């Protein structure tokens, strides 16, 4: 996959990692029917960390991050987000979901609402923010992703890159402390990828905790402070990006890296 | 962050999921008792199903099959179970099922004494509707399924002429000569075009068959019949009834409405204002009134609209009206198919120099119709169900027959058994077809 | 062909009518028009000749003659001495009545079944599937007849309520009687009634308007106006502070207090049905013909609506639900704010064409003796007067007007909700 | 050409009957139509075509019967239809005679304890739509100033079901129809016919206006049946009688004397064929609806005039 | 855009231009509704000429060549193809269409017919060629475009490049004297573009008169003997390829060339 197509200077100094734990996953297992899709996952994410998850298709990357905001249910082990344990307790789920933003591969904007409405919907109904305030926040984030002028259009009228940026803005409007990205650029054309990655880098610079499933290795190298490699539902290797790319330990990782960096 | 670096040394094996989430227990947990509301719903549903089945099954299966009248049925019930309620008297179906299926279609050749004497049971003429039905399946098979050998298309082409002959009987020359009309049109076009030009050829290709059908078919067919007589006994359409009638009306209506519907759809799509207005007017008119009013027209008005002295029987009139009715719906189905075709197909045809009709016939219609098949099947189901309305104007379709049967002194007072049987047959037919159209829809989805 | 002279400017030739695209369309249209006119003329001519031989020149005078027959289920006053026109009017109202009632219940049942078919509960989903398939694949006429039969056979006759130890009793504290002739419910009565206004004098189209009703509607209107005000304020507050104040009690109060006062002023009381002689007297009677037709049409159409609803919901991609959930919205809100608005676009157009079908199917009322317009104008009137042409034409016209109005609404809606796209 | 020629050319008589009324017309399991009205059709077919089987029975409802006849779809209608002024004059049909003198009656369950129609105030009445009885009913209750609630129903079978289930208190139609219906009840004795007969319902076959020749054929075919009973000609003895008797009227009737058939445009044995088709009037009556059948109607008004009834044929002369 | 990716020697000597006029367009104007899409077009094409039409999107290139075989109707001016004037006369239209082959961006093959049937359809029905002969011709041209072995497949079973070549073969089967190409390669992947361009070059070598809307500047340079540049419905500049690329006259052309050759 191509290197990150950004020409700006990335300011790694701002990306501070505190040592407060944001997400803690302990011995987590998940099955789809009788298919063991996540096996004994252990993962600690500190606040401000930027983690990239990579791995071959079907290795359970999406499933893992979907478990974190309970879009999928895990069957054993614990997931603790920001001190709250994810259980079947609806209140906990609500609490966690409003602190974890999620950004999908296919954006999943609401086509019947304008961009602005997309961004204000959840703050108004979930956070009970006054409309005015919600709209101001929304405009703030839309400016941040550089499309304030599209606020009154409908998603169908935007390009893919713009839509993905709206999706990010929409999550940000809930002021989450953690952002999950599931292959946010893989449905986009090369030019648009750049737009979206730029936005993500900016977020990283502001110290947002991020978990990102992506194969943009340039992004991983420059932004992440940890890369996790998954295979067959397990975390096979994790390391700092430099180490990970230059000096992979496991055979599986080597094979994978040779493939995706090779061509 | 010293804990950052991690390498898994040995891969974990695939484990069995916790017991509660698989197997029957897991399934039941996930699908039936997932939360309080769901559990309550499940229990209520189970109780409901139990009561319905209990009543229905005992009524259906603890029943009387052999009796010659309702009274006898009741006697048997009283003797067996001590009460007459809660038990079906299927004897009426046993007694009348042939009638419900074929109406009054003679079980023997319609003109007794021709070859078979007065012996009514000798040579069941039921084979004629049966054969028509089997041939129908053969005729539509190549249209509906890709895998069927293309040769069967011959059956499809012959069927429209063969079916009326089988059903109504008479000399074979009538249908043959009617089919010959198409041959005449074709020949006229082929032979006359070089002589009198394309336009003349087209006019001749339309006019000659029409003249042939209107004035000559009868004479020629009669002539041929007197020379080489090939005929089977005639059956008046009055004798048609029961499910045979429903199927006949449905099949004829769909068969005839297809070409009309195509023409209407093309007219509705065209940019010729008047043609378009006429087509839209017709379609919206037909779709705007209930079928029953059209049947009223068939039964009380059609004769008024036609030249004085025109006589043709009620079944034909109903066939005409139901055909018109189906055409309007068919036109909308075909229009959907046309709309689904990319514009490039029209342009591709144009750029090759195909003219309008060639383009329609060779490029547009084959594709549009294929897309429309699910819609056509649904229309057919609708029309088939709607054939029950003919009972209101006194035709003896299954519902009409149920009235007639209940008017027989032997079965006066019977009720549920008849309707259950009729509903069951309709269900089997329609359900089968709707499944088929779903299968088609799925296939179409995959194909694109 | 190196040198090209000016192309010959051909003058008009007859063959251009066929081969010139400009004239050709005109030719085709002219031919179509002439063909249509000839066909129409032929029809009209045949009709005229035939009617002359039958001695029935078309005329509509019969509409003003006394009908001579009675109508049991009626929305306006009527007796057998009223004209055929009034009988038709009553029929038309009955058609509309059952159509409107049917559409409402069909929608409710259909939406419910459609949603339940998607339920995670296997058995509920399966039961709903059985229901849908059962109703979709059996002719509606059969269902109407069966519904009537079930009502007649399974409910108690009025005489079962009689005697010391009646086999059947009234429901809901003796206020509602469910019999196989229909359902008797309490009727509203006013002791200080303001009377009626008679409109259109003695003509066939006359109708009465109850002043009580008008007063009631006005007060109700005012209440609802008040409620919208309260809600608007609540919305305003929500937009400024984020919290939506509880409006339930204010709404309830606004709704019930004024109307309650008005009803008290008018001396409102309920007239209960009571078994007198052969039948229940008093109360409002919904005849079983109406109920059977209503039930059968609703259940039949609901099966189709259920499929539409299911399809509509499935058409909204799962990603939408996930996105809403990821934003922290609960399932109820997700449904209301995200899924339904999108599903409705897909659902409404086919739904309306099903309403149309229901209205047209209501013409099968004759099978159970419900006096809709097909039963009156197209049934008894046609039969007693022998004016087939006139009655059938009028009948078609009525249905056509209803259908076209519904189609117009549909087109309007479709244009309104088109998704904005590039 | 006249209808008679049409029928001869066609070789079949198209005869309109009801879609089903016990005793009057209904198809059996073999699709053979049976009944009193059917008998009239067969007699006419036998008279015209010499074959009682040469009939095409066209089932009609109360609604379609008149249009079927007016449009020429059927040649004659024998469908327990009442002879009324407007049907004759306005709808332009010729009633060729009366095969059953009827009147509209009421049937109620015995347990209601009703003994007169006047006591039916407030009752729910089952009634077939599109019939004279529907109009009579409105008139009757109106003139007696009592209220009722009509339950309009399309067919007799449906009406019977509603009545039995108690969906209506009373069933009213032609008394013959009532009796026929009651006869098939599980317990006929639980129901009574009220004494009032509120109308005259002369039921008879009818043809279109404007073809008197055909009207005559049907009329005299019916009369032949009546006269045959009066003269004692039955299907059993007709063979020997046809050979010639000493009663000249019988001879004229059966064609061994005179040329009545020729005058009608039929062959000489026309009446003989008509009578052989199903017997004379009395035989038809007894065989289909008479006291020996489950329906069990007494001759009553429909006895020969010689027996004090109204059945009376003009002379064959 | 990339240079022509062909490695074969192009034989320009064979590409003779006769001085018979194949297409003559005089003062042609066309409107869509009230939008003036083609303005006063004058163009003479001699037999054997190979013309490339370039220009920004929306400049009316497609419209122009669609007018030549009357897929669109022009409102004023004359178009004379091979001596026949394009008027509303159906006979003329039919005549011209059978002499002008057209090849679309999206191929527009008939998906319900096999490749062979696609190719024989028009010869059989329009030219009234006996089937046998039509099939022979078809196979001949399929061989020419190098896919004879696909004759019995359906279009859906072929790759884009193969489909486009079938589309060309289909037009050729009508033995047209003029071929129109409307961006025949722009819907294709780079590898497939080569296949199609090769086929077109071969055609050019055989002396076929060609009008081609394309942005393959390599193709234009090597094959065309005239390049026409359109903008806003007008012909802005036309010249021989060398001149056109190296020495554009108009500002508009310069701008355009800098854009498409630049990146
Ligand atoms: N709803 C489901 N039911 C059953 N199996 C599923 C379901 N969703 C995913 N799976 C399976 O679980 C495994 C992991 O899926 P997941 O989507 O997490 O993979 P991934 O690593 O995100 O792959 P990709 O890179 O293709 O997105 C896959 O084998 C997939 O087939
Ligand atoms: N059917 C139509 N109705 C109205 N306007 C049209 C229509 N087709 C094309 N246009 C307009 O006409 C102009 C020229 O269109 P055309 O397709 O010829 O451009 P083009 O040069 O081929 O562009 P491209 O390179 O994008 O294919 C455009 O502005 C287009 O919007
Ligand atoms: N019951 C009937 O169908 C006939 C009723 C009545 N004799 C009539 O002619 O109208
Ligand atoms: Mg994934
Ligand atoms: Mg273009």
UniProtKB/TrEMBL annotation, chains A, E:
Pfam families per record: ABC_tran
Sorted alphabetically, the keyword list is: ATP-binding, Nucleotide-binding, Transport
Give the top-rank taxon of the lineage listed in the UniProt record for this protein: Bacteria
Ranges for the ABC transporter domain?
Answer: 23-257
Its signal peptide is none
Q: Annotated Gene Ontology MF terms?
A: ATP binding
Recorded hits in SMART domains, A to Z, give: AAA (SM00382)
Q: Give the family per the record.
A: Belongs to the ABC transporter superfamily.
Name used for this protein in its record: L-glutamine ABC transporter ATP-binding protein /L-glutamate ABC transporter ATP-binding protein /L-aspartate ABC transporter ATP-binding protein /L-asparagine ABC transporter ATP-binding protein
UniProtKB/TrEMBL annotation, chain B:
Annotated ranges, domain ABC transmembrane type-1: 243-437
Q: Which InterPro entries match?
A: AA_ABC_transptr_permease_3TM, ArtM/GltK/GlnP/TcyL/YhdX-like, MetI-like, MetI-like_sf
Origin species, per record, is: Shimia sagamensis
**Mind telling me what this protein is named?**
L-glutamine ABC transporter membrane protein /L-glutamate ABC transporter membrane protein /L-aspartate ABC transporter membrane protein /L-asparagine ABC transporter membrane protein
Q: Which PANTHER family match?
A: INNER MEMBRANE AMINO-ACID ABC TRANSPORTER PERMEASE PROTEIN YHDY, MEMBRANE COMPONENT OF AMINO ACID ABC TRANSPORTER
Q: Where in the cell is it found?
A: Cell inner membrane; Cell membrane
Please give, as recorded in its UniProt entry, the membrane topology of this protein. Answer: Multi-pass membrane protein
| NCBIfam families tied to this protein | HEQRo_perm_3TM
Which family does the record claim for this protein? Answer: Belongs to the binding-protein-dependent transport system permease family. HisMQ subfamily.
Key word Cell membrane present? yes
Chief location bin: membrane
Give the SUPFAM superfamilies listed for this entry: MetI-like
> Which residue ranges traverse the bilayer?
39-61, 126-145, 152-168, 199-223, 243-266, 278-302, 314-334, 371-394, 414-433
Provide the alphabetized UniProt keywords: Cell membrane, Membrane, Transmembrane, Transmembrane helix, Transport
From TrEMBL, chain C:
UniProt-recorded name of the protein = L-glutamine ABC transporter membrane protein /L-glutamate ABC transporter membrane protein /L-aspartate ABC transporter membrane protein /L-asparagine ABC transporter membrane protein
InterPro entries cross-referenced by the UniProt entry? AA_ABC_transptr_permease_3TM, ArtM/GltK/GlnP/TcyL/YhdX-like, MetI-like, MetI-like_sf
Which family, according to the similarity comment? Belongs to the binding-protein-dependent transport system permease family. HisMQ subfamily.
* Keyword hit for Membrane: yes
For the keyword DNA-binding, the answer is: no
**Residue stretches spanning the membrane:** 23-44, 96-118, 130-152, 209-227, 248-271, 291-316, 362-380, 392-413
Q: What PANTHER family does the record point to? A: AMINO-ACID ABC TRANSPORTER PERMEASE PROTEIN YHDX-RELATED, MEMBRANE COMPONENT OF AMINO ACID ABC TRANSPORTER
- Compartment(s) where it occurs, according to its Swiss-Prot or TrEMBL record: Cell inner membrane; Cell membrane
Domain called ABC transmembrane type-1: residue spans: 92-410
Which superkingdom, per the lineage?
Bacteria
Q: How is this protein situated with respect to the membrane?
A: Multi-pass membrane protein
Q: Which organism is it from?
A: Shimia sagamensis
Report keywords, A-Z. Amino-acid transport, Cell membrane, Membrane, Transmembrane, Transmembrane helix, Transport
Pfam families (UniProt xref) = BPD_transp_1 (PF00528)
Which NCBIfam families does the protein's record reference? HEQRo_perm_3TM (TIGR01726)
Family matches, as Gene3D superfamilies: MetI-like (1.10.3720.10)
């Amino acid at each position: 996959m191509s290197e990150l197509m950004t020409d700006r200077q990335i300011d790694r100094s701002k990306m501070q990692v505190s040592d407060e734990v944001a997400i803690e996953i302990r011995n987590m297992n998940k099955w789809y029917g009788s298919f063991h899709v996540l096996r004994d996952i252990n993962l600690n994410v500190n606040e401000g960390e930027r983690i990239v998850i990579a791995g071959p298709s079907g290795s359970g990357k999406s499933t893992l991050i979907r478990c974190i905001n309970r879009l999928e249910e895990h069957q054993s082990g614990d997931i603790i987000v920001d001190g709250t344990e994810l259980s079947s307790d609806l209140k906990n789920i609500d609490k966690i979901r409003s602190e974890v933003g999620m950004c999908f591969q296919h954006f999943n904007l609401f086509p019947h609402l304008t961009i602005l409405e997309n961004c204000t919907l959840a703050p108004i109904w979930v956070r009970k923010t006054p409309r005015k305030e919600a709209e101001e926040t929304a405009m703030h984030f839309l400016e941040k992703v550089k499309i304030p002028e599209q606020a009154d259009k409908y998603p169908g009228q935007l390009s893919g890159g713009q839509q993905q940026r709206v999706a990010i803005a929409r999550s940000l409007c809930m002021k989450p402390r953690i952002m999950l990205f599931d292959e946010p650029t893989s449905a986009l054309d090369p030019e648009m990828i750049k737009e979206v990655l730029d936005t993500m880098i900016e977020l990283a610079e502001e110290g947002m905790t991020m978990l990102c499933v992506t194969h943009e290795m340039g992004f991983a190298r420059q932004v992440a402070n940890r890369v996790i490699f998954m295979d067959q539902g397990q975390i096979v290797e994790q390391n700092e990006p430099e180490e990970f790319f230059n000096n992979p330990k496991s055979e599986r990782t080597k094979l994978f890296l040779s493939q995706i960096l090779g061509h | 962050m010293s804990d950052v670096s991690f390498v898994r040394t040995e891969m974990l094996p695939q484990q069995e999921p916790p017991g509660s989430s698989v197997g029957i227990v897991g399934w039941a947990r996930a699908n039936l008792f997932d939360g309080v509301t769901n559990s309550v719903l499940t229990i209520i549903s189970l109780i409901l199903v139990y009561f319905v089945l209990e009543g229905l099954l005992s009524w259906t299966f603890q029943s009387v099959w052999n009796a010659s009248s309702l009274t006898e049925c009741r006697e048997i019930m009283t003797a067996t179970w001590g009460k007459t309620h809660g038990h079906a008297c299927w004897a009426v179906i046993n007694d009348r099922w042939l009638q419900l299926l074929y109406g009054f279609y003679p079980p023997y050749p319609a003109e007794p004494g021709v070859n078979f004497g007065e012996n009514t049971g000798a040579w069941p003429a039921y084979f004629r509707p049966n054969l028509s039905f089997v041939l129908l399946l053969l005729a539509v098979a190549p249209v509906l399924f890709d895998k069927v050998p293309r040769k069967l298309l011959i059956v499809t082409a012959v069927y429209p002429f063969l079916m009326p002959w089988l059903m109504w009987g008479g000399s074979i020359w009538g249908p043959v000569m009617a089919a010959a009309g198409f041959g005449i049109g074709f020949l006229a076009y082929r032979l006359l075009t070089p002589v009198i030009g394309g336009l003349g050829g087209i006019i001749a290709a339309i006019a000659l068959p029409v003249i042939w059908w209107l004035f000559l078919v009868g004479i020629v067919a009669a002539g041929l019949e007197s020379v080489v007589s090939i005929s089977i006994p005639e059956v008046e359409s009055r004798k048609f009834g029961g499910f045979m009638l429903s199927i006949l009306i449905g099949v004829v209506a769909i068969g005839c409405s297809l070409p009309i519907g195509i023409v209407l759809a093309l007219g509705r799509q065209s940019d010729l204002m008047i043609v378009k207005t006429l087509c839209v007017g017709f379609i919206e008119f037909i779709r705007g009134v209930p079928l029953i009013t059209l049947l009223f027209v068939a039964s009380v008005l059609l004769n008024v609209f036609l030249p004085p002295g025109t006589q043709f029987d009620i079944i034909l009139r109903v066939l005409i009206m139901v055909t018109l009715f189906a055409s309007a719906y068919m036109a909308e189905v075909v229009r959907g198919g046309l709309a689904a075709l990319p514009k490039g197909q029209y342009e591709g045809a144009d750029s090759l120099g195909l003219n309008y009709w060639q383009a329609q016939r060779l490029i547009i219609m084959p594709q549009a119709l294929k897309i429309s098949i699910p819609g056509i099947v649904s229309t057919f189901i609708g029309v088939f169900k709607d054939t029950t309305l003919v009972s209101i104007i006194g035709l003896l379709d299954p519902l009409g027959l149920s009235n007639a049967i209940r008017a027989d002194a032997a079965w006066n007072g019977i009720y549920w058994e008849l309707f259950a049987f009729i509903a069951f047959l309709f269900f089997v037919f329609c359900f089968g077809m709707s499944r088929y159209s779903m299968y088609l829809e799925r296939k179409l989805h995959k194909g694109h | 062909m190196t040198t090209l002279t000016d192309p010959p400017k051909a003058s008009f030739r007859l063959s251009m009518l066929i081969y010139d695209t400009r004239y050709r369309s005109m030719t085709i249209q002219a031919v179509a028009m002439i063909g249509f006119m000839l066909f129409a003329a032929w029809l009209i001519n045949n009709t005229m000749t035939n009617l002359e031989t039958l001695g029935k020149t078309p005329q509509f005078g019969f509409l003003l003659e006394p009908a001579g027959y009675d109508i049991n289920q009626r929305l306006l006053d009527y007796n057998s001495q009223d004209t055929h026109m009034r009988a038709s009017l009553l029929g038309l109202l009955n058609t509309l009545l059952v159509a409107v009632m049917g559409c409402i219940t069909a929608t409710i049942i259909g939406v419910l079944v459609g949603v339940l078919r998607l339920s995670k509960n296997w058995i509920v989903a399966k039961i709903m599937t059985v229901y849908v398939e059962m109703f979709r694949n059996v002719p509606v006429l059969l269902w109407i007849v069966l519904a009537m039969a079930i009502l007649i056979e399974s409910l108690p006759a009025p005489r079962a309520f009689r005697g010391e130890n009646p086999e059947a009793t009234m429901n809901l504290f003796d206020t509602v009687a469910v019999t196989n002739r229909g359902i008797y419910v309490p009727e509203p009565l006013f002791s200080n009634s303001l009377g009626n206004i008679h409109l259109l004098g003695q003509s066939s189209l006359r109708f009465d308007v109850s002043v009580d009703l008008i007063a009631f509607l006005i007060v109700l209107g005012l209440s609802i106006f008040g409620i919208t005000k309260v809600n608007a304020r609540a919305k305003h507050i929500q937009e400024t502070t984020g919290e939506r104040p509880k409006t339930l009690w204010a709404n309830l109060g606004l709704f019930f207090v004024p109307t309650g006062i008005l009803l008290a002023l008018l001396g409102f009381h309920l007239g209960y049905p009571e078994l007198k002689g052969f039948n229940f007297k008093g109360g409002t009677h919904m005849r079983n013909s109406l109920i059977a037709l209503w039930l059968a049409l609703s259940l039949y159409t609901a099966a189709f609506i259920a499929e539409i609803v299911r399809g509509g919901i499935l058409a909204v991609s799962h990603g939408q639900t996930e996105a809403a959930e990821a934003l922290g919205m609960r399932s109820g809100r997700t449904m209301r704010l995200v899924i339904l608005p999108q599903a409705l676009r897909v659902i409404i157009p086919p739904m309306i064409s099903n309403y149309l079908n229901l209205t047209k199917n209501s013409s099968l009322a004759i099978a159970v003796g419900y006096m809709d317009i097909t039963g009156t104008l197209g049934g008894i009137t046609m039969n007693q007067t022998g004016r087939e042409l006139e009655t059938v034409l009028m009948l078609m016209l009525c249905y056509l007007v209803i259908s076209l109005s519904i189609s117009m609404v549909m087109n309007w809606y479709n244009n309104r909700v088109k998704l904005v796209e590039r | 050409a006249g209808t008679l020629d049409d029928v001869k050319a066609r070789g079949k008589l198209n005869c309109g009957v009801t879609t089903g009324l016990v005793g009057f017309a209904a198809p059996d399991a073999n699709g053979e139509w049976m009944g009193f009205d059917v008998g009239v059709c067969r007699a006419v077919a036998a008279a015209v075509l010499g074959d009682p089987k040469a009939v095409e029975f066209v089932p009609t409802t109360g609604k379609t019967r008149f249009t079927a006849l007016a449009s020429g779809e059927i040649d004659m209608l024998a469908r327990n239809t009442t002879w009324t002024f407007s049907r004759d004059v306005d709808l332009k049909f010729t009633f060729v005679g009366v095969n059953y003198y009827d009147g509209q009656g009421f049937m109620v369950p015995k347990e209601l304890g009703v003994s007169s129609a006047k006591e039916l105030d407030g009752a729910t009445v089952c009634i077939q739509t599109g019939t004279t009885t529907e109009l009579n009913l409105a008139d009757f209750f109106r003139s007696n100033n009592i209220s009722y609630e009509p339950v309009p129903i399309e067919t007799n079978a449906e009406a019977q079901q509603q009545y039995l289930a108690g969906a209506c208190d009373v069933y009213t139609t032609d008394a013959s129809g009532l009796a026929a219906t009651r006869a098939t009840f599980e317990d006929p004795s639980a129901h009574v016919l009220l004494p009032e007969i509120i109308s005259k319902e002369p039921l008879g076959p009818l043809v279109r206006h404007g073809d008197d020749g055909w009207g005559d054929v049907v009329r005299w075919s019916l009369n032949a049946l009546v006269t045959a009973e009066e003269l004692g000609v039955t299907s059993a003895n007709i063979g020997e009688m046809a050979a010639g008797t000493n009663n000249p009227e019988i001879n004229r009737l059966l064609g061994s004397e005179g040329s009545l058939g020729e005058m009608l445009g039929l062959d000489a044995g026309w009446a003989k064929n008509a009578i052989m088709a199903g017997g004379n009037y009395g035989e038809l009556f007894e065989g289909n609806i008479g006291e020996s059948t489950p329906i069990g109607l007494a001759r009553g008004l429909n006895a020969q005039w010689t027996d004090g009834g109204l059945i009376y044929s003009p002379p064959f002369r």
